[in-house]
Each structure stands twice: as C-alpha cells, then as structure tokens.
Automatic annotation (TrEMBL):
Origin organism lineage: Bacteria, Pseudomonadati, Pseudomonadota, Alphaproteobacteria, Rhodobacterales
Protein's name in the database: Xanthine-guanine phosphoribosyltransferase
Residues engaged in binding 5-phospho-alpha-D-ribose 1-diphosphate: 45-46, 100-108
Organism annotation: Paralimibaculum aggregatum
Bilayer topology: Peripheral membrane protein
Record note on quaternary structure: Homotetramer.
Length: 168
C-alpha cells in the first residue's frame, strides 16, 4: 500500500510552475544553434497553453493548431486528424516548432512525426515511454504518475491530518 496521501498521488502542476517550465522550454529553443523558427504549431488542446507562452518568448506571431483525437472505442485507439495546419506553411516540418504540454505513450507525437518528419517536437513534460519521440522537453515524470495540469484543477479544501485540536 502506498504511504502517499490521496491528494499527493500524481504530479500536480500549478500555473506558476507550468509558466516557469514552459518558459524554460522556450529558452532551450532559443539562441545559437537553433533554427529561425517559422511558426509555432500547438497540438490542441493542451499544447495551446505552452504554445502561447513559447510564441510570446520567441517573438513568433504565426501560430497554428493541429487537432488529433483518439477513438478508443472504434479502432483500438487509432488516432484521427480532426484539423490539419496550413499545408503550405508546414511543408515537411522544417523550421516548424510543434508544441504540446506532455508526451505519455508517444502516440500523439508519433502521429505528428509521421506527417511532418522535419518538425521540431517540443513538450514541457515527458514520461519515459514517449520521451524519445520529443526533440526537446523540460522534465521527466514517472510513467505511472498522472500529470494534473493547472487548467484541469481548482483550489479545494484539504482535511488536516488529525482532528486533534478541533473543538467538538
Ligand atoms: O503521448 P500520448 O499518450 O499520445 O498522450 C499525450 C497527449 O494526451 C493529452 O492530450 P489529449 O488527447 O488528452 O487531449 P487534450 O490535449 O485536448 O486534453 C496530452 O495533452 C497530449 O497531447
Ligand atoms: O498524465 C497525463 N496527464 C494529463 N493528460 C494526459 N494525457 C496522457 N497522459 C496524461
Ligand atoms: Mg493533448
């Protein structure tokens, strides 16, 4: 049995931490040796948050989206492209920064890589199973740890460890 408290299970990321980590990702993609990026392409929906932060840091005004959905009930989780980015902009992906919040199994990034082999795939968090598919990431998170992103959470009351000291 785990000795973790129920609210500690997983990796809970605050807005501040996410902003800091996304900025660190931008910093890694900037400077000597890095290409002149043409555009940021965010993988919806989670990639739009770091995509915005990175576009701001790198001074990129061209921001596109790619939308991929998983139909687990239909075809063993086959991925389907719901919305493609502009084909003329994308080409084979050269100079394109594709951004997502995280890579887990790697299925999403593998899908993107197949279509845009020259794109740079950047994510904030990576789990070991999919990490090799990302060209750049900031932090590795255990495979069995669920990453709770700030837009999926809210402030909630947490019980103290003991009722001792409470009147009743
Ligand atoms: O490496 P994988 O196993 O493919 O998982 C990673 C993807 O899963 C999540 O997106 P999700 O499809 O849940 O959609 P969302 O971004 O709209 O929340 C996450 O934002 C990544 O895009
Ligand atoms: O750990 C995760 N957190 C949030 N979304 C996800 N999608 C795949 N894995 C994760
Ligand atoms: Mg996503």
């Amino acid at each position: 049995m785990s000795d973790r408290l129920h609210y500690e299970a997983g990796f809970h990321v605050s807005w501040e931490r996410f902003h800091r980590d996304a900025r660190s990702l931008a910093a890694r993609l900037h400077g000597p040796g890095q290409p002149e990026w043409k555009a940021v392409v965010a993988i919806t929906r989670g990639g739009m948050v770091p995509g915005c932060i990175i576009a701001r840091e790198l001074g990129l005004r061209v921001v596109e989206t790619i939308s991929v959905a998983s139909y687990a009930h239909k075809d063993q989780g086959a991925l389907q492209l719901l919305k493609a980015p502009d084909a003329a902009l994308m080409g084979d992906g050269s100079g394109i920064l594709v951004v997502d919040d995280l890579v887990d199994t790697g299925r999403t990034l593998a899908f993107i890589r197949e279509r845009y082999p020259k794109a740079h795939l950047a994510v904030v968090y990576a789990k070991p199973q999919g990490a090799a598919l990302a060209d750049t990431y900031i932090a590795e998170v255990a495979q069995d740890s669920w990453i709770y992103l700030p837009w999926d959470m809210g402030l909630v009351y947490v019980d103290p460890l003991t009722r001792k000291g409470n009147s009743e």
